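Sequence of DUF1996 domain-containing protein (Rhizoctonia solani).
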Amino acid sequence: MLATFSSAVIASALLASSVKAGDHFILSQCRDLSYTRVDPMTNPGGIGPHVHNIVGASIFSPDSGSPDVLQQAKCSSTMIQDDKSNYWSPLVYYNHGNGSYSPMISSTRIYYFLKPLNGTTPVKAFPRGLRMLGGGYADHRPEQYPPRINAIKWGCSAGAVQGQGNGGSLPGQRPYLPNDAPNGCGVLTLVLDFDPEKKIKSNSSRSDHMSYPLDGPNGYNCPASHPNKYPTIFLEHFYFPSENQPYRGPNQDNWILSNGDATGLNMHGDFINGVSLTSFFTIESIN
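Predicted 3D structure, token representation.
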């Protein structure tokens, strides 16, 4: 059974127009909503390019890219039911080494970091229906990683036991899949968090209107072209092998993304803001 919180708690955590107390908020115990070839940002109304792991609003579909549609969701697979946002990433598969693959069961945490990065730039509320994406698209291992690749942190699931969904931190972080992780793996993806001074379109395709900080995905300095700071979102997935997914050795491609990438550099996290206007007005009244 999912825990729920009041609109006031949700709003104060996620939508404060000027964050003065507390610097982060964690959504734990997030459940997988579905595994499906749907991406309302890149393929609205159609079939997506690859299978995604979906978290959030129950109404997720090829046509759920608008905030009006998201607000019709009856529930969320996160612990905050007033947040009708959706979060999705490529599904990770186990490679059996014989031409067959099976999905990896995952658990998800979502982190919202609210503290102004340089101590002065206020964190603004997400615009209604804002779309953002974090991560990379390269299918090789470049010598120098651009910001989108640096936004991906793979690691071993410390403390995970084979066949059990129980794990901890991500030691030995790297931007590519850790084939030396016999107990499973995890990934942390940082989503873009700056936008231009000009008014953005909430239904803009992907995240062309967004930018990472100048000093890296988790940096402090706003680009001059993108002075508006929004909460930083970390999407953290832990993947645990089942009894039928034995570790095949450090020199094997044990895991592969649903888009066919065995390096992990194609990992990305998508987000559509679905926090209700009711929650927004609640935060305005309590600030």
